[in-house]
Structures are given as structure tokens and as C-alpha cells.
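Standup, Tuesday
Yesterday: got the pipeline producing C-alpha cells again.
Today: sanity-check two examples.
Blockers: none.

Example 1:
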Amino acid sequence: MAPFVDYRSADGQYRKFRIALVGRRPFLCHMAISNHWNVHYGNSGMDCDPGKRAEECQMMETFDKVFVPRHQTALSTLADRIGLDFVVIDCAETKDGELLFFEADHASAVHGLDPPQIFPYKRAHMSRLFDAFAQMLKSAAAR
């Protein structure tokens, strides 16, 4: 148990990030935006809201340049402490810009099944993640 942390953004919406750490490298799987604190991608209405999708697309485009550098220490510490070659984390940013960690799992849903006509920006990002995962497996098998 942990105390509730109000992580709403200035617009009153909650933003949850699903990040896969593949060989310690972070990949954004999705960003869900919801007016409820218990954010799940499937019930956040991302498929029905072009504004939310535009924001998610922008986050995916800038993730490596903006989000990762801002949270590199926290992401590296999580990777060190978890100690797995592959792990998926759910997290958010607090009002103060800190990384708020919710959970880590090696079996969280990470997929490329979102309809491309609704989520055209996702395919390229998920392909990079899947390629990194395949390379991690090849490297591990070679060891």
C-alpha cells in the first residue's frame, strides 16, 4: 500500500506511461490520458479522441529527446534494482516533474495491434521496440 499521489496535469487529466526497458533502454509503448486516476489504456478513450492521440504521437516522437533525459537517473535505478533484461513499467509524472512509479512486470501487455487507421504513428515506434527485443534475445542466445 502507498498513499495516493495526485498526479493530474494542469489540465486536470491523468497521464500514464507504459515503458518497456529492453536491455536497460527505455521504449514508450503507450501514453494513456484519462480524467480518472486509475488509468488503463483500454478505457481511457484514446481511440475516440483525436486530441489525445495527437498528444500521444507527440510524446512518442519526443520520448528519447525529452522524457528519457529528464528521467534517466530514475529509469537507470529501476533497471539496476529490477535486474532483468526485459521489464515493463507503468508510471506517470508528478506535478513537480518527478517520475511516479506504479508497477513493474515482465508480462505486461506490449503489442502492435492498435488499428493503424486510428493510430498510424504507433507502428514505427512499436517496430523499434520489437526489433530491440529480438536483438536482445539474439545477444543472450549468443552468450
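Example 2:
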Amino acid sequence: MSDVKELKALAYDLRKKVVNMVISGKGGHIGGDMSVMDALVALYFKEMNISPENREDPNRDRFVMSKGHSVEAYYAVLAQKGFFPMDEVIEQFSKFGSPYIGHPNNKLPGIEMNPGSLGHGLPVCVGMALAGKMDQRNYRVYTVMGDGELAGGSVWEGAMSAGHYKPDNLCAVVDRSAGLPLDGMC
């Protein structure tokens, strides 16, 4: 899928799934979900080499959702990509005992790490990118950060490390909570 119109239509449809998920779970961060959806759809359906079929491949691309409170959008995209059933996510989101909790859960297929405090995505991704270079792998590492976490010290430590080591396999996207265009990313 590469046509911008198709990607926009998919993002629109997935936003509806997110609303259903939030209603089913009786809570969520819907504003952040809506703003990050275009970026996630563009990354997962146009840019990144990530799929259920290659999830164990050491050369697959890596993705970290630093903006972990927008997990509903992330789950919707992963479900659409085929990592787990969409109906299951909507039905079980934020329910007692469910793996579909309010922040990314790396016990689920397709999720590389559980983001903790905001701001940890970029420094972790710098480390993943550098590890890929050291292991002579050809994968790329992506993160989506919220604009609110950019003031965190760990973000700037990660940015300074990236500036120093210059990993050319790293892509950091900032969601400015106003939506991003589906073209011109990374």
C-alpha cells in the first residue's frame, strides 16, 4: 500500500476502531491516538520492514512507541497489520487480565519494548540502531515521540548521542498533536 489516498482512508478507518476500543475499555487517550494515527499508518504500511511473518528476523526494522499513552492507535495499526485480531483488541482492551493494557506490552507480538516514563524511546532507539551497526545488520530503527516529552533530559541525551555517533539507520518522528502529513516522512 503506497498511495496516499489509500493510506489516508486506512488511517480514517483505524481511527473509528480506536473510538470503539476506547468505548469498550471505558477510557483511553483518544486525542493522542487521533494525532499519531497518520504517522503510524505511513510507517507501518509504507516505510518499515515489519510484519508478523518477519517478527523473528534479526534484520527486521524495529519500532518503539515512545508516546506509549497513545497505545490504542498502536494496537489498531498492529492488528490491521496482522499481529493480532482487531476484534479481540476492541473487546478486551483495558479489561482485567487482558494483554491489551493501557501502554504497549512487549508480551504481544510486534511490540519491541514497554515504554515507561515519557522520553525513553529515543535513547533506547539510539542504542538499538548502534547495536544494529555493531552487529552488521541492515535494519532501521524508528520511534514516535510526543511533543510533550521533548523537554525530558533523556530525550536530549539520546539526541546528543545520536549526534555524536551518527547512526544512519535511526528515524525519530515527533507527533506535534496536530497530525502529520503522510508524505515526506523520514
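Quick observation on example 2: The first helix runs from residue 4 to 25. The two ends are 17 Å apart (CA to CA).
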